[in-house]
């Protein structure tokens, strides 16, 4: 699924102005490998990610995105990172400020395949075979690897 209907409805009202959205990233482990896919729009390797629908629990969104984009069933295990991504400006001028919630997930079933057209390839790769993954995604994986660590976040200091 590309842009959710609720975002399209909001865009009709606000145009291309910055829109705050909650996104999720699923760091899915199967044995010693992590699930990644290559984006259809820009060819970049990335983790499975998407937008939380209104009223949806973020962990459920991470699970849903894995099924929709990669055809795999996963179980969200823990929140690994809460962070704000730099403002994204799309080719059509739409601006989005994403609050990204990164979940460590465990593979349950299914063989990955590009299920909805957002990805051209998808599969599990060993941590040593992620050379073309950008540094931000590598950081998300690193924070998700430690099973018992608390979620990482930035900010939270007094403003005075």
Describe this structure in words.
Strands 1, 2, 3, 4, 5, 6, 7, 8 and 9 form a 9-stranded mixed β-sheet that branches. By secondary structure, this protein is of the alpha+beta class. Strand 6 (88-89) and strand 7 form a beta hairpin. The chain has one domain (24-146): Alpha-Beta Complex (Nucleoside Triphosphate Pyrophosphohydrolase). It has 3 helices and 9 strands; from the N terminus they run αββββαββββαβ. The protein starts with a helix and ends in a 7-residue tail after the last strand.
Protein topology:
Blueprint: H1 5-14, E1 19-30, E2 33-39, E3 45-46, E4 48-51, H2 58-70, E5 73-84, E6 88-89, E7 95-109, E8 119-126, H3 135-145, E9 152-153
Parallel strand pairs: 1-7, 5-9
Antiparallel strand pairs: 1-2, 1-4, 2-3, 2-8, 5-7, 6-7
């Amino acid at each position: 699924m590309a842009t959710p209907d609720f975002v399209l409805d909001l865009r009709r009202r606000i145009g291309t102005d910055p829109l705050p959205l909650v996104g999720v990233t699923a760091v899915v482990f199967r044995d010693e490998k992590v699930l990644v896919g290559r984006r259809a729009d820009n060819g970049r390797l990335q983790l499975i990610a998407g937008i939380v629908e209104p009223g949806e629990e973020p962990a459920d969104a991470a699970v849903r995105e894995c099924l929709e984009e990669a055809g795999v069933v996963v179980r969200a295990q823990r929140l690994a990172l809460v962070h704000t991504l730099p403002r994204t400006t799309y080719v059509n001028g739409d601006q989005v400020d994403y609050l990204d919630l990164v979940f460590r997930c465990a593979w349950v079933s299914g063989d990955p395949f590009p299920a909805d057209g957002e990805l051209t390839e998808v599969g599990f790769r060993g941590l040593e075979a992620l050379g073309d993954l950008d540094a931000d995604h590598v950081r998300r994986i690193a924070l998700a690897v430690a099973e018992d660590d608390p979620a990482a976040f930035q900010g939270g200091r007094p403003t005075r």
